[in-house]
Task: structure prediction
Amino acid sequence: MVNLETTNWILAVMAVGSVVQTVLIIGLAVVAWRFYTQATRAMNELEARHIAPLRQQVDTILVDVQKVASRVSSQTERVDSAITGTIDRVDETAERVRDSVREKVSRATGFVRGVRAVIVSILTSDSPSAKPPAEAAGRL
Result:
């Protein structure tokens, strides 16, 4: 028969090695779990002590900024409305002034044309060439 003693020793060493590896893996898993729980606890404490108060302050500031933005928006709309109304009134006034000036200039132009027509008719009626021939012959 074949001697299996050497083979049994090799199998025993392999079995002990497997047990040692299993114990080491379980030990590493336990250590990793402890590190994870400590890190989680530290993060929760950090968040509770520092991040939560900062977040509250930021939220308060954001509310104030929203209020200011709302006021600025309403004031901007108000100013825009005032400027638009003013521009409309200026346009209307300019149109009225233009129409009034145009009317007065038209009257003045008509008056000047009338005076010019009178002057032209007076000057052309007094000239010798414009007199009738019978009247011109009686003077001579």
About this structure: The two ends are 185 Å apart (CA to CA).
